Amino acid sequence: MIGFQICKRTRKVDAETIARFRELPVANISDSMSRMFAGGARLRPIHASGVLAGPAFTVKTRPGDNLMVHKALDLAEPGDVIVVDGGGDLTNSLIGEIMTSYAQQRGVVGMVIYGAIRDYDTLHAGTFPVFAAGVTHRGPYKDGPGEINVPIAIDGMVIAPGDLIVGDGDGIVCVPFDLTADVLKATQAKHRAELKQLEEIKQGKNDRTWVDATLKRLGVEIDD
């Protein structure tokens, strides 16, 4: 039944690709995807520190209800990232300390909640990656409906089951399964270029001629 179903994930990004992306900043991944894909500024890291990287195990749920999130915890495989589209609603929390503890025991490497969490103090003190849109003490309902392993969208960013999810202090980005090789190559090149630029800045050799060149191209008048 559409709206209340559990589907089977048919593919997911491989461990080697995940490991390579884990070493790259989310900002560089985003730049390499033309800055057109992002999980929204509201999705912030709740945990103290640590990078999130893994294949998406998706959940779409009615705002304020976590029945399908509980089922996802039972079905997810070690290394998975559970990504929940709760509609961005912050009225009721969808997860807290108990559910994240169970997720860790199951080998899940992190959770992304487009909605609210609770038990902030505990989650914030830990290193288990949790990204969420907000915090509230008010608990969830457990009636459904909801769907597991279906395409979801978070603030315009479409996430299909098995896509790559990467998160750091700048937020969350999703790399589509079929594009990981191309995006990885572009991101690695971008990262190398930025490291080179940072070294040039330290040495006082950073080339800034592009600024005036751009202003000139745009017809800006500059008084000398």
TrEMBL record:
Key word Transcription regulation present: no
A Pfam short name: RraA-like
Task: Tell me which cofactor or cofactors this protein depends on.
Answer: a divalent metal cation; Mg(2+)
SUPFAM superfamilies membership: RraA-like
Q: Which InterPro entries match?
A: RraA/RraA-like (IPR005493), RraA/RraA-like_sf (IPR036704)
Spell out the coiled coil positions from the record: 181-208
Signal peptide coordinates: none
Which keywords, in A-to-Z order, does the entry hold? Answer: Coiled coil, Magnesium, Metal-binding
Detail which positions bind Mg(2+). Answer: 119
Q: Which residues cross the membrane?
A: none
Q: Where does substrate bind?
A: 96-99, 118
One molecular function GO term is: metal ion binding
Q: Which domain of life is it from?
A: Bacteria
Q: What is this protein called?
A: Putative 4-hydroxy-4-methyl-2-oxoglutarate aldolase
Query: What organism is listed for this UniProt entry?
Result: Bradyrhizobium canariense
Species classification = Bacteria, Pseudomonadati, Pseudomonadota, Alphaproteobacteria, Hyphomicrobiales
